[in-house]
Amino acid sequence: MDVLLQQFFNLDIMAKALPLVLQGLKTTLLICLIVIPMGLIGGVLVALASRSTVRALRVSVTLLVDLMRALPPLVVLILVYSGLPFLGLRISPLTAVVIAFFLNNAAYYGEIIRAGIESVPAGQWEAARSTGLRADQTFTWVILPQGLRNVLPDLVSNTVEVVKLTSLASVVSLQEMLYSADMARSLTFNASPIVLAALIYFALLWPAVRLVSRLEHAAAR
Q1: Contacts within 8 Å (CB) and 24+ apart, 49-56
Q2: Do 110 and 43 touch, CB atoms closer than 8 A?
Q3: How far apart are CA 163 and CA 204, in angstroms?
Q4: Which CATH number characterizes residue 180's domain?
């Protein structure tokens, strides 16, 4: 038992690794602050395009969404980071992560938001238009808020996945929290920094996980 505690729960090593892990946490939060809003905006655009009356646009977006949902996010990240230089575009690891995660999350958010929009009864469109609202105003102020409310548990759940997704950024040597914890592990030959990072992830995401559960129960009622 003592060996287990020393290897995984060594408080002295955790204390020494904490500044490095917190530095990585800043990068993790930065990725989230960029990717989550971009993903939501992209998701709305994807949802609108997937309902377009223009068949070519609808088919193109559907194929892109299917591709992004079928490919592992790690594969997308490697393709973006390693493939763009062959096109003459040299980008930083942070830019590669943002592009790859945006493509992935816009696809998932888009499908969730599309389902939310389609869950709003057609009568809501007609009632809003009858008050004199234009089509864009009806969508923005009546349909979209109701659609988002209907799929709020799924949106929050996907956002939790986005935060966990940031750990893949270590593959392109972006010093996010897991990368920093692994650096500390390699220096100390001890897994305690990894456990420390796991505890921070838990502290960040547990409230969101409980929120998803409450929202799901509320929706069921």
Answers
A1: 50/110, 50/114, 51/114, 51/117, 51/118
A2: yes
A3: 9
A4: 1.10.3720.10
Compute the C-alpha angle 152/155/158, nearest 5°.
150
CB 107 within 8 A of CB 120: no
In angstroms, the first-to-last Cα distance of the chain is 46
Q: Is 190 helix (H, G, I), strand (E, B) or coil?
A: coil
The amino acid present at 141, given as its one-letter code, is: W
Question: What's the pLDDT at 84?
Answer: 86
Consecutive 10-residue averages of pLDDT for the chain (221 residues) = 79 92 94 95 94 90 93 93 86 94 95 92 83 84 88 89 91 91 90 93 89 72 61
Residue-range definition of the domain harbouring residue 204: 2-220
pTM of the model: 0.88
* Whether 188 contacts 18, CB under 8 Å: no
Number of domains in the chain: 1
DSSP 16-44: HHHHHHHHHHHHHHHHHHHHHHHHHHHHH
- Give pLDDT, residue 220: 60
Looking at residue 221, its amino acid is: R
